[in-house]
Structure formats: structure tokens, C-alpha cells
Design brief:
Blueprint lengths: L27 E2 L4 H5 L7 E5 L27 H9 L3 H12 L9 H34 L2 E7 L2 E6 L8 E5 L7 E7 L5 E5 L1 H4 L5 E4 L18 E5 L11 E5 L2 E5 L4 E2 L4 E3 L3 E8 L5 H4 L10 H35 L21 H15 L7 H18 L14 E2 L11 E6 L6 E12 L2 E3 L5 H11 L50 H13 L4 E4 L6 E4 L3 H13 L1 E6 L3 E6 L8 E11 L7 E7 L5 E7 L1 H5 L10 H13 L3 E10 L1 H15 L6 H12 L4 E12 L3 H10 L3 E5 L4 H10 L8 E5 L11 H6 L2 H21 L7 E5 L1 H7 L5 H10 L2 E4 L4 H15 L2 E6 L5 H6 L2 E5 L6 H5 L2 E3 L4 H41 L10 H11 L1 H10 L5 H6 L15 H25 L15 H23 L5 H23 L2 H4 L5 H6 L3 H28 L3 H10 L2 H4 L1 H10 L8 H28 L1
Parallel strand pairs: 16-28, 16-32, 28-31, 29-30, 30-31, 32-33, 33-34
Antiparallel strand pairs: 1-11, 2-9, 3-4, 3-5, 5-14, 6-12, 6-14, 7-8, 7-13, 9-10, 10-11, 15-34, 17-18, 17-27, 19-20, 21-22, 22-23, 23-24, 24-25, 25-26, 26-27
Helix pairs in contact: 2-4, 3-4, 4-9, 7-8, 7-26, 9-26, 9-28, 10-39, 11-12, 15-16, 17-26, 20-22, 26-28, 26-30, 26-31, 28-32, 30-31, 30-35, 31-32, 31-35
Length: 1218
């Protein structure tokens, strides 16, 4: 493992170039320093012995291992926690009580018949929970089993599994590997200890972060030197703050301050650096990323929680009729028992039939009644729901429309408990990087010297052009597109460019044609700024002979690719120079030019710009600057504003097209001016004190002024395939969409435009605790702004914004709320969070920037609890785990960057676009299936269970059942189970294509149209009505006063019970057939097969020995079959039972149809094929009114163009008259 000491890269000392990112703590602390003393106090008690991990095996330094677990259970907690989960269900509690009571002598059924079903239901559910948690465990093992190079002893390194790491271990992490724990950076492959870190998994930012080791640890850059390395780190205790760190390193009898620039966090990745050495500070669940995670929650769907309330109601009814039954039994025992001499018990002391103690008899009979009427509460409901949900999850897993062919990843329902919840989502909270975007920038357009170049179109423009071209009442003949802002119908062709990062198309600049342009000198400067103003490193690609660029941000990479394609190839960087190969025409060879890099003022979120000072081969000194247009424009000189008006217009057009823009400018420096400035700059850079950064800002301001505008760039942040269309459909389905990102505000806003969450004309409400323009304020005043003042400032901003929104009278006005992490810290406090939520709900879209993982979870909780409706969180990184677990439904994107989000999720998909089908199709189907299934279950059990109660009253509350025990056992298990399972698994009100064409159908779920109390009570009422018809018509027809057979025989209890049960089987199965909208052979087999199985059972049961069949011996073949009244009454009663439902559904379809009724009728009569205009009109009606998405954006554009057209009409009329 030993290295030769030879470096693979040039010896670049980046710290001499970087101005702000690499501020090294220059103050060496003494041991008596007050800062050191405070590190021993509460919250700062951690002590790490570097390269001595064995010292941390015992208390008080016994720290956790690096093993992590995201499972809900373990071997010890599985049984108690899983049993608790099962008995959170009210029905299971009831059946547990019934099973216990069945052990008493007064139980009407055997104990086994009560205990076995309960054990089966609970056992099946627990097995499903165990299987799902096992999958989480296996994914945890994949992470824990990763390997990293660790110092073993005597300067020798070897590989260890991540889970074996201990605090104090020295590790060597190589390029493109994840950091296995939180580390202190000791050294890197660069001479001055610089390394680049990608933190996308932590905060969503794609820009690489620059980290730098302490100067004292720079010599620790070989394997062998760690043989004698020892040191002590005293630092803060584990906490979730990603952006802070307080600690000291005691090394070689000196104490050095450690700050966040030396800390490498777990789950971030090493980039653009061959290797680093680091020492482990925090492991496992002590790491900051794990501190930001939450325990795996136990989630239950809203329908399941509402089902508990229905169980309470039915249990109340059960107790009520049981009390009536017990009272009736006590009354009969007291007043009529002495007349029933033929029923006298052999045991004279029998308390159940003792007329002297009727109260005791009634209480004992209450136990019998509670068990006997238990059919009101269906235990098979939970089994059926579990089976149905597993089948639904299989359909989700096997849906080819959600299968990513490129990655080979299908959708996965990691839990089936929340299938129906997918159909009731109200708000989606989405991560940005890796979820909405694929982190790829394409150079698409540019503005140089006031002229716009680039004829290609962005994804936003493509969709807008396509939508406008197909708009039925606003064709291209009505719109006059200005030549300066062409909308190319690119949806009819494929982009020619196949170069990654470069989709520019315009022959005026390509192949050296730019030299023929009028402003060729300005164009030359534009290209040079692209090629020089960056911090990237070129790497020779041996296969192609060209260069790959490792840049801090995707934007920089796209600029360098563009510069290369324009003929300005960045080919080499040394410590002090950048080399560019310039080619002015294809026929000429390239000319290599050297530019001396004098200073680098890098980009950060506060400066919003980057500058580089270079000296060209002629000795001319230039300041090259790129940045946000608002920042650059205010720094232009009077002579540098020549192209400002045209460039501003182009920037607006690029923004409208959803592109990310930067303005480019330069300044020629006199040598004396530069030397004077540089002296002051060096003085500020080497100063000691808390205001060093403020001094650097001030000095940078002195140089970055009097600029000359060159032009602007427009790059497209490539969204994941289908993201804009998906967001548009979800918006049309009536869903609210929030974006929570750790990225900076400008980036998030650009993405908001790209996916049409924002658009031109939308009023943006930006909430922040910082002053509107920090660059114009004294830095000390900003930092001294008290927390209370910041909170009051934010409260005032929210109040003003809320008032503005409420006073808005324009029906088309749309508001977007944008808030940063610091503002969110105050907005989430108890006294402000309700006002913040009220404002957010009033806005069409909400974007939260610079958000920590903990804040993502807190925002999700606020929306979930404040709105009171179903929330869905979707993300792809470890920073999204908190919100995924906090939301009602968590969806993980199984992308390239780890599997943490997937491991914590309820559902996983490979791309954001599949969310549309998951919700609009599967969510809609699952919600309606489960809702109808549960309602039907309660209907059939009420219809069946109440007939037992009616007969009890008829039989003097004796506890005698009218039905044979086998009938009652088979009712839920065989005779009515398969139809209801087929309903829950296969029912479709409309096809998947129609679901996608009519997204507003989805609103039936959030509005809970199929499981509200009116629907539930309606089904219960239907069950009550059916029970009355079934019982009283059957008793009337088969009364003992009239014969039911031609030979004069009257019906006994077995005949009445069997006939009544036959009517029940027919009635409930016809009812479910009427409920179904979509029939396949499976449904037909289940429904009609269930009825047929009843008759087959009767024949088989009747042919069994009388010792088994009892009074049912040959009951169908000899008793009921030959009697025509049996068949007639079955038909009559089944029809009468279902007549009210048939009338209700006919009236509803004719007079007050729901959306899916209309669509079903159109499809049935094939009107969608015969009348395309009508079908298109119905589709446009079926969109929820929304102010976000492509559709809303195009409609706003059309309104704008129509307004301009109407303004032109009067002048056109005047010209015609004259």
C-alpha cells in the first residue's frame, strides 16, 4: 500500500489563488486559551486520540462503532413492537377479547374457531412486516460492508469494512469514494492539503466544496509517516449541524483551531483529488448525516385510521344489541322460564337458567351475545386487505411503464400498507438535485455585443411551442412572433448536437465564422472569459485525445466545453498560468497562448460573482468577471453599458425559457493601479482577526467596478426526462408542489423556471433575515444583527406579503414563496409557523433554499400537521431521509448517489417522471379499490350479522343461531371472500390511459369522495335495509303456518336458515357485481363461482353422514331443491335487496354523474373515436385550475400575446380607414 511519493497531478498550491474558500486559521492557540478550556464543558466533551483507536474501546471514551441501521425492528424488539402494531387495530383488540371469552363455557363457538383466525391474521401481518424490514436490513448491510483503506500499524494500510471503523482510525480515501465517517482532513494529493468534496447527498448542492487541511499536518502525506503519528482532538459532541464545527487539535505540544473547512462529512464524496488522509472523529449514528435522520416511523393510511372509527361504531352497535339480547334473555328467564318445563336444565343450580337470578343470567348471556354477533365486525376484512395490498404492490412492482430501461430499475413498493394513501396526496415536497434535475448543464444560447446567438430551444420552449401549435382556439395565424424572439418548432426535429454539455446551434459563431461578425473583437473577449474565468483542471482523455474538465460546478464544465467547441480549448494549468489553444478557423492550426493568473476572486453565494485577474502575452493586465446580471450591471462603467439594454432583453427571454444565465464582463487594468490594489489585497489576506473576510470583501469591491459588459450565457440545467410534463400533470391533478433544496437561492429559482414552478409575471415573495443587498452593508452590522431583530424583520415581511396576497384582485395573479434556510429557522418557530404556513398555502408554489436535512423534516411535519392532509416527500439523497420518513408517504429515487433515500422510503422509483403514474394511475386505482372494498365488507357483514340478531329476538334470545355453524364459518372465508378480493385487486373505473388524460379524476381521492361518512353510512344503511328484507321476507315466505312443498311439508329451522343464507349469498354477490365497473374473466369466476360453490357445498355437505351434516342432511337435494318457492324466493329477495342501489346509481348517472361516469359513457359509446373535438373538450374541462406547470405557463403567455394583439388592433383599424 505504500506510495512512492510521486504525485499524479501538477503541484498546484490552490491556496495561493483562492481568496475566500481557503482561509486557514492563522492563530495558533495556547493551551491556556479560553477557547480550549471551553471545549471541556457541556456539549464540547469529545476527546479523540488520533491513530489510537483502542483507547476508545472503554468508558468514558467508548464511542459507538461505525455500524448503522435504518430498520424498524431488531431481534429483540420485533415481537413486542410488531404485536403492538397489530393491536393498534381496534378490530384485532376486539377479536383478542372474543378469543379470550371463547375459552369460557358459555361461548357459542369453540375456542379454536375464534383463536385460529386471529392468530392467522396477526401472524400474516407480522410476517409481512418482517419481510419488509429484512429488505431494509439487507440494504444496510450493503452500506456497512463497503471497504476503506485504514492504517493498521507501522505505516501499513489495509482495507476494512465501514462497520469496523472506530474513532481515532486514520483512513485513506481515494478519488470518487464516499467518506465512511466524519473525518478531520490531514493531507491530500495536493501539496497544500486542498481537496474537493461533493456534498450533494447532504445538502443537495452540486457545486464542489473546497476543503483544506491544517498546515501542521501537511507532512502527513505518505503511508509510512503514520507509524509515529499521534495527536488529540478535543471537540464538540455529536450534533446535526452540517455547517458548523468547533474543536482543537493538540499535536506536537501545540494547539491548533479546527473549523468546518477541515471536516469531511460521511456520505459526501471526494472529487477532483487523487486521495486524502483523515482521522475519524464521529462514527455511525454519531455522524452528522445520521444525526439528521430520524427513527423509522410506523405509518398508517388515513383510510385505515378512519376504519378504526367505523369499528368503534360497529362495536357500539354490537354492544347495544348484545345488551338488548341479554336484557331480553333475562326477562324471558324471569317471567317465562317456569312455563318452559321442557327446557328445564338437569342441573338445578345452573345460574344461566335460574329464574331467581335473572340479572346474573343476563350478564352471562352477554358474553354469548358478544361472541355470537361478532360477525358485525369482520376479522377477515384485515386478511383480505392484506392480500389485496400485496397484489396491488405486485402490480406496482411489475408495471413496465415505470421501469427504467437505461438503469434496469423497476418501481418498488417497499411497503404495501400505504397503497391507498397514494390516491389521497394533497402536497408533494420534493428535493431538487438528483430528483428534479440530473445535474447536467448544456450550453444552449448566448448574447454577445447585444446580439442573441443560438437557434436551439430549451425544453420549456419546446413544450410551449408544441402546446401553442396544438391550441384549438389560438392558432399561429393569430400570433405574430417577433423576429428577435423566434420560437423554433423544435418538437418536430431532433437536436443535432451529441456533445455532452453543448447543445448550441448557430453557424454564425461555429467553425470560425465569428471572425466575420461585426463585433468580432467583443466575441473574442467573450470566448476568452469562458476559457479563463474558472477554477477547473484539465485531464487528458487518452482514448479521444481531448480534454475532460473537473470543475467545481456543472456550469463551469459547460462553459469550458462551449469555449472548446468555439475554438478556445483550455489545455493546461500550472501554479501561475493557464494555457489556451486558440483556433480561429478550421483550416488553421491552433495557437497556444499563456495567460498568467495573478489573482482569483472565487464565486460564493454572497458575492454572486467570480473574477480572475490575468496578464496576457502582450503584458496587458485584465480583470475578467462573470456573475449574476443584477450584480454585474450595477458595477458597469458609463462606457461599459453599450449593450446593456439588448442584453437585459435577452436575459429576460432566456429566463422565460427556463435557462440559467450569467453576465460576462471585463476591465483593462493599468499596471500601477493593479500593484497598488494587490498590495492592499495581500495585506487584507494576511490579516489576523474576525473581520478578515470583511476586509477581503471590501478590497474585492475596489477592483470589481467600472466593468465593460460583453454579453451573457444561457445554459440549460438538464431536468430529468419528463419532469416538466410530470409536474404539469400533477398540477392539473390539483396537487401542491413544494421544493426543498440545500442549494442556493439563485439555482433553485432557475430550476423553478425550468420546470415551470415559476414563470415570468409570477410575483415572487422572497423571505430572508439578511438585508436585501448584503454587499452594500458593512459586514460587521450584518453579523451583529440580533436573532430577535431578524425574527421581527421576518415576521413583518410575512405579514406584508400575506396582506398583499389577500388584497390581490386579479384572478390570474400567481404568487411564489421563496425562503432561505436562515429565514426558515425563525419561520418554523411556534409563534411564526402558523403565519408562514398560511402564507405558503396562499402561494401557487413554494421553494425553500439552503435547507438542512432537519429543516426538511420540520417543514414536512408543519405541512402534514398544519394542512391536515396527506403529504408525500420525494428525494434521492441522505439529506432527504428525514423528510421521507416524516411525510405520510416517502418516495425514494433510486439514483446513482447511494441508496439512503430508498432505504428509508415507502416506495422507490428510478426517475421523478414515474411519480405521475404512481399517483395518478396506481394511487387513484388503489384508493378507490380499497375504499369500495371496505364499504362493501361492512355492508355484507351488517346484512348478514343483523339477521342473526333478528332471529335471536324471534327465538326468545336463547342464543340459538338460525344458521349451521359451517355456513357461518364459510361465509367470510370462502363464499364472499374471493369477489371482494377481486374487487380490491382488479377494479378499474377507467383505464390507465384515461387516468393520465383526465388528471382531475385524481381529486376524488384527496376529496375522499368514496370513503367519506355519507358514503360509509350509506353503505351501512344499505346493509341494514338488506338485513331487514332478507330476514322478514324469508320468515314470511317460509313461515310454519304455510307449506313450502307440494306434499304439504312446512319448513323447519334448518330449511329456513339454509334458504335465508342462500338469499344472502345471492344478494351480496349481485351487489358486488353491480359495484364493479371493470370485468375480466377473473371477476366473473370469483362472483359467479362463489355462488356456484355455495350450491356445491350444500350438495357435498348434505351427502355427508347425519353425524356430520346434522339437520342439513340432503337438505338441497331432497328438501329445498324440489320446492319452487325456494328458487322463486331467492330471486325475489335478491332483486328486492339490490333494487335501492340500482335506483340510486341509475339516478346518479342520469342526473348527477361523477367525472368517471361521464368518461365511462363516452368510452362505452366510442364517442372518443367518433368525435375528437368533444373528447378534447372534455379533457380540457377535466383539468384542475392551476397556476403552475407548462399549461399554466403557456396560458399566461397566450393571455400576454392576446393583450398585445388587442392593443395593436385600434392602430390597425385607423390605418385601414385612412
Amino acid at each position: 500500500m505504500a506510495r512512492t511519493g510521486r504525485r499524479k497531478r501538477d503541484r498546484l498550491r490552490w491556496s495561493k489563488l483562492y481568496t475566500f474558500s481557503c482561509l486557514r486559521p492563522s492563530v495558533q492557540l495556547e493551551t491556556s486559551d479560553t477557547g480550549t478550556a471551553s471545549l471541556g464543558g457541556p456539549g464540547f466533551s469529545r476527546v479523540v486520540h488520533c491513530n489510537q483507536p483502542r483507547l476508545h474501546y472503554k468508558k468514558p471514551l467508548k464511542y459507538p462503532t461505525n455500524y448503522i441501521s435504518t430498520t424498524k425492528y431488531n431481534i429483540i424488539t420485533f415481537l413486542p413492537k410488531a404485536i403492538f402494531e397489530q393491536f393498534r387495530r381496534v378490530a384485532n383488540l376486539y377479536f383478542l377479547m372474543a378469543a379470550i371469552l371463547s375459552l369460557t363455557p358459555v361461548a357459542p363457538f369453540s375456542a379454536v374457531s375464534m383463536i385460529a383466525p386471529l392468530a392467522f391474521v396477526v401472524g400474516l401481518s407480522m410476517a409481512k412486516e418482517a419481510l419488509e424490514d429484512w429488505r431494509r436490513f439487507m440494504q444496510d448491510m450493503k452500506v456497512n460492508s463497503r471497504k476503506v483503506s485504514v492504517h493498521r500499524s507501522d505505516g501499513l494500510f489495509g482495507y476494512k469494512h465501514w462497520e469496523k471503523l472506530r474513532v481515532g482510525d486514520v483512513v485513506k480515501v481515494e478519488k470518487d469514494q464516499f467518506f465512511p465517517a466524519d473525518l478531520l482532513l490531514l493531507s491530500s494529493s495536493y501539496e497544500d492539503g486542498i481537496c474537493y468534496v461533493e456534498t450533494m447527498n447532504l445538502d443537495g448542492e452540486t457545486n464542489l466544496k473546497v476543503k483544506r487541511s491544517l498546515e501542521v499536518t501537511l507532512p502527513l502525506d505518505e503511508d509510512e509517516v503514520f507509524k509515529e503519528f499521534k495527536g488529540v482532538i478535543r471537540c464538540e459532541d455529536p450534533n446535526p449541524s452540517l455547517y458548523t464545527f468547533v474543536g482543537n487539535l493538540e499535536y506536537e505540544r501545540q494547539v491548533y483551531a479546527i473549523d468546518p473547512t477541515q471536516i469531511l462529512l460521511r456520505d459526501s464524496k471526494l472529487r477532483n483529488t487523487q486521495y486524502i488522509y483523515g482521522v475519524v472523529i464521529f462514527t455511525g449514528h454519531d455522524t452528522k448525516v445520521m444525526q439528521n435522520s430520524t427513527d423509522s416511523p410506523s405509518k398508517r393510511s388515513r383510510i385505515e385510521r378512519q376504519m378504526d372509527k367505523i369499528i368503534y361504531i360497529l362495536f357500539s352497535v354490537l354492544v347495544l344489541i348484545s345488551l338488548i339480547s341479554s336484557i331480553g334473555f333475562a326477562v324471558n328467564i324471569k317471567y317465562y322460564m317456569h312455563n318452559w318445563w321442557f327446557l328445564q336444565p338437569d342441573d338445578k343450580d345452573n345460574k344461566l337458567y335460574n329464574p331467581k337470578t335473572p340479572a346474573i343470567s343476563g350478564l352471562i348471556h352477554l358474553i354469548t351475545a358478544l361472541i355470537l354477533y361478532g360477525y358485525l365486525i369482520p376479522i377477515s376484512l384485515y386478511v383480505s386487505i392484506e392480500v389485496v395490498k400485496v397484489v396491488q404492490a405486485m402490480f406496482i412492482n411489475q408495471d413496465l411503464q415505470m421501469y427504467d430501461e437505461e438503469a434496469g430499475i423497476p418501481a418498488q413498493a417497499r411497503t404495501s400498507n400505504l397503497n391507498e394513501e397514494l390516491g389521497q396526496v394533497h402536497t408533494i415536497l420534493s428535493d431538487k438535485t438528483g430528483t428534479l434535475t440530473c445535474n447536467q448543464m448544456d450550453f444552449l444560447k448566448c448574447s454577445i455585443a447585444g446580439i442573441s446567438y443560438g437557434v436551439g430551444s430549451s425544453e420549456v420552449e419546446m413544450a410551449a411551442a408544441k402546446h401553442m401549435a396544438s391550441h384549438s382556439d389560438f392558432g399561429t395565424s393569430e400570433i405574430e412572433i417577433e423576429p428577435s424572439t423566434p420560437i423554433t418548432p423544435v418538437f418536430e426535429r431532433v437536436r443535432k448536437s451529441t456533445i455532452k454539455g453543448f447543445s448550441f446551434e448557430d453557424d454564425r459563431l461555429m467553425n470560425g465564422n465569428w471572425t466575420q461578425e461585426q463585433n468580432s473583437g467583443t466575441i473574442l473577449m467573450f470566448f476568452r472569459i469562458l476559457a479563463l474565468c474558472h477554477t477547473a483542471i484539465p485531464e487528458l482523455n487518452e482514448e479521444t485525445g481531448g480534454f475532460n474538465y473537473e470543475a467545481e460546478s456543472p456550469d463551469e464544465g459547460a462553459f469550458l466545453v462551449a469555449a472548446r467547441e468555439f475554438g478556445f480549448e483550455f489545455c493546461k494549468r500550472t501554479q501561475s498560468s493557464v494555457f489556451i489553444r486558440e483556433r480561429y478557423s478550421p483550416s488553421e492550426g491552433p495557437i497556444e497562448r499563456e495567460f498568467k493568473v495573478l489573482n482569483l476572486l472565487e464565486f460564493n453565494s454572497k458575492r454572486k460573482r467570480m473574477s480572475v485577474i490575468v496578464r496576457d502575452e502582450s503584458g496587458q493586465t485584465l480583470l475578467l468577471c462573470k456573475g449574476a446580471d443584477s450584480i454585474i450591471f450595477e458595477r458597469l462603467s458609463k462606457n461599459g453599458r453599450t449593450y446593456e439594454v439588448d442584453t437585459t432583453r435577452h436575459l429576460s427571454e432566456y429566463g422565460e425559457a427556463g435557462l440559467r444565465t450569467l453576465a460576462l464582463s471585463y476591465r483593462v487594468l493599468e499596471e500601477s493601479e493593479y500593484l497598488a490594489w494587490n498590495a492592499e489585497f495581500v495585506k487584507a489576506k494576511t490579516s489576523i482577526g474576525a473581520d478578515r473576510e470583511a476586509q477581503l470583501e471590501r478590497v474585492a469591491e475596489l477592483m470589481e467596478k467600472d466593468l465593460i459588459l460583453v454579453g451573457a450565457t444561457a445554459v440549460e440545467d438538464k431536468l430529468q426526462r419528463g419532469v416538466p410534463q410530470c409536474i404539469d400533470r400533477l398540477a392539473q391533478a390539483g396537487l401542491k408542489i413544494w421544493v426543498l433544496t440545500g442549494d442556493k437561492m439563485e439555482t433553485a429559482i432557475n430550476i423553478g423556471y425550468a420546470c415551470s414552478l415559476l414563470r415570468q409575471g409570477m410575483k415572487q415573495i422572497c423571505l430572508s433575515t439578511a438585508p436585501s443587498d448584503p454587499t452594500q452593508q458593512d459586514a460587521k452590522k450584518i453579523f451583529l444583527l440580533s436573532e430577535q431583530a431578524a425574527k421581527e424583520n421576518l415576521s413583518l415581511q410575512m405579514s406584508n406579503a400575506l396582506q398583499m396576497v389577500k388584497l390581490e384582485r386579479d384572478p390570474h395573479a400567481a404568487f411564489a414563496l421563496i425562503i432561505d434556510g436562515k429565514g426558515l429557522t425563525h419561520a418554523l418557530q411556534d409563534d411564526l409557523k402558523d403565519r408562514f404556513l398560511e402564507l405558503a398555502i396562499e402561494c401557487a408554489s413554494v421553494i425553500c433554499c439552503r435547507v438542512s436535512p432537519k429543516q426538511k423534516a420540520l417543514v414536512t411535519r408543519l405541512v402534514k400537521e398544519g394542512v391536515g392532509k396527506t403529504t408525500l416527500a420525494i428525494g434521492d439523497g441522505a439529506n432527504d431521509v428525514g423528510m421521507i420518513q416524516e411525510a405520510d408517504i416517502g418516495v425514494g429515487i433510486s439514483g446513482v448517489e447511494g441508496m439512503q433515500a430508498v432505504m428509508a422510503s415507502d416506495f422507490s422509483i428510478s426517475q421523478f417522471r414515474f411519480l405521475e403514474r404512481l399517483l395518478v394511475v396506481h394511487g387513484h386505482w388503489c384508493y378507490k379499490r380499497i375504499a369500495q372494498m371496505i364499504c362493501y365488507f361492512f355492508y355484507k357483514n351488517i346484512a348478514f350479522g343483523l339477521t342473526i340478531f333478528y332471529f335471536e329476538a324471534y327465538a326468545a334470545f336463547s342464543g340459538q343461531s338460525v344458521y349451521d355453524d359451517w355456513y357461518m364459518l364459510l361465509f367470510n372465508v370462502v363464499l364472499t371472500s374471493l369477489p371482494v378480493i377481486s374487487l380490491g385487486a382488479f377494479e378499474q373505473d377507467v383505464s390507465s390511459e384515461v387516468c393520465l388524460q383526465f388528471p382531475a379524476l385524481y381529486q376524488q381521492g384527496p376529496k375522499n369522495l368514496f370513503f367519506d361518512w355519507s358514503r360509509i353510512l350509506g353503505w351501512m344503511g344499505n346493509g341494514l335495509y338488506s338485513s331487514l328484507v332478507l330476514y322478514f321476507l324469508s320468515i314470511s315466505i317460509f313461515s310454519s303456518e304455510s307449506a313450502f312443498r307440494s306434499d304439504g311439508q312446512t319448513a323447519d329451522m334448518a330449511a329456513v336458515g339454509t334458504a335465508m343464507f342462500t338469499c344472502i349469498i345471492w344478494a351480496v354477490n349481485i351487489q358486488i357485481a353491480l359495484t364493479m365497473s371493470h370485468f375480466t374473466w377473473i371477476q366473473h369466476l370469483c362472483v359467479w363461482g362463489s355462488i356456484a360453490s355455495w350450491y356445491l357445498f350444500l350438495v357435498a355437505y348434505g351427502t355427508a353422514s347425519p353425524l356430520i351434516s346434522g339437520n342439513a342432511f340432503q337438505i338441497l337435494v331432497e328438501a329445498l331443491g324440489p320446492a319452487s318457492i325456494y328458487w322463486i324466493s331467492t330471486l325475489l329477495i335478491a332483486v328486492v335487496c339490490n333494487l335501492p342501489y340500482l335506483v340510486h346509481i341509475s339516478y346518479q348517472r342520469a342526473c348527477n354523474p361523477l367525472d368517471h361516469h361521464v368518461i365511462q359513457e363516452i368510452k362505452y359509446y366510442k364517442k372518443d373515436l367518433e368525435d375528437h373535438d368533444m373528447w378534447k373538450r372534455e379533457r380540457s374541462k377535466a383539468r384542475q385550475k392551476t397556476k403552475i406547470g407548462f399549461t399554466a405557463r403557456v396560458e399566461a403567455k397566450i393571455r400576454h400575446l392576446k393583450g398585445r394583439l388587442h392593443k395593436k388592433l385600434p392602430s390597425i383599424t385607423i390605418q385601414t380607414v385612412s
